[in-house]
Design goal:
This protein has helices spanning 19-27, 48-51, 60-69, 75-82, 87-90, 102-124, 142-151, and strands at residues 4-7, 13-17, 36-39, 46-47, 130-135, 155-163, 169-178. The chain is an alpha+beta fold and 179 residues long.
Length: 179
């Protein structure tokens, strides 16, 4: 009967095992589809998925025999070995780029045009320009001055009470209007 060995996670050789024992180790998660397997007396190591393609479930007695042969003593070790693993779920899959769909392409083009086009809008659409004016209306003529500036299209931006050079208190106002 042929015997086989496998390389564990630390690249240590484990074995010998029969074909059924190797399969049991795989079915219960002790080894994976990429674990390297080699026949006794040979030196051509290959991954399990190339070594053994039949995936029939082993009997519980075979699994217990494998566990005893390899010294799994604790309940935790036995449970760990008994957890079946699907190589499709647990082995990383190589992903290949298969292009984009028409909708994905349309979205990419829309985003690119939007991202590139929005800064260009400032060249096409002029920005609003303002002119500013600073005035200091006296307290006695404050209302009249405000009405006058408003009728001329000026908008009050800021106002504060300030003392002028002669020591008199007046308003200091900043106005703006569109050019």
């Amino acid at each position: 009967m042929k015997k086989y060995y496998y390389l564990d996670k630390k690249n240590q050789v484990e074995g010998p095992f029969s074909v059924d024992e190797i399969k049991s180790l795989y079915d219960y998660g002790k080894i994976t589809a990429s674990t390297q397997i080699c026949e006794e007396g040979k030196d051509n190591w290959k991954p399990y998925h190339l070594f053994y393609s039949d995936k029939a479930q082993p009997s519980a007695t075979k699994l217990q025999k494998v566990i005893k042969l390899k010294g799994a003593q604790s309940k935790g070790e036995i449970q760990q070995v008994e957890q079946a693993r699907d190589p499709v779920q647990n082995e990383p899959e190589e992903q290949k780029f298969e292009g984009v769909t028409k909708w994905q392409g349309a979205i990419i083009i829309f985003l690119l045009l939007g991202g590139l086009g929005s800064p260009m809008l400032s060249w096409v659409m002029p920005t609003q320009k303002w002119e500013y004016r600073i005035e200091s209306p006296s307290d006695g003529r404050f209302q009249e001055s405000m009405d006058k500036y408003g009728s001329e299209g000026w908008e009050l931006v800021y106002s504060r009470r300030a003392r002028d050079e002669s020591g008199e208190m007046n308003y200091e106002c900043i106005f703006k209007r569109k050019k």
